[in-house]
Design a protein that fits this description.
With 114 residues, this protein is mostly helical. It is 67% helix and 0% strand. The chain contains six helices and no strands.
Length: 114
């Protein structure tokens, strides 16, 4: 039995409507342009993060100028922690400088040369 073009188109339309119903109505669909614009416009937090960063920096400068401490920690201690290097790469290079790392390609090249 051969289906007509109209019957095939109707079946496809029904299938698309079922798929849309499973993921929400057409107006609420994620793929619609207005919904996508609303979602992207409402999720930007850069302005809030910028204001918080400015307030934190202003508070830090104020505490430094007024010599305010919090639980025994002053601004100089904070600066030292920012400068602190948890991974001393210079010392690691001195310690492991003579170790060479070879890859599998180098080993196969060496075998081919022998």
């Amino acid at each position: 039995m051969v289906k007509s073009i109209e019957e095939s188109a109707r079946e496809r339309r029904n299938y698309v409507e079922q798929a849309r119903a499973a993921f929400g109505t057409h107006e609420q669909g994620y793929g619609s342009e207005p919904a996508r614009q609303e979602a992207s416009a409402g999720t930007s937090t850069f302005g809030i993060r910028l204001v918080i960063a400015i307030l934190l920096f202003a508070g830090f400068v104020y505490c430094d100028q007024e010599k305010i401490t919090y639980q025994g920690i002053n601004a100089q201690d904070v600066i030292e922690q920012v400068k602190w290097n948890p991974l001393p790469t210079e010392e690691l290079e001195k310690l492991f400088g003579d170790i060479s790392v070879s890859t599998g390609n180098e080993r196969t090249e060496n075998k081919a040369q022998k």
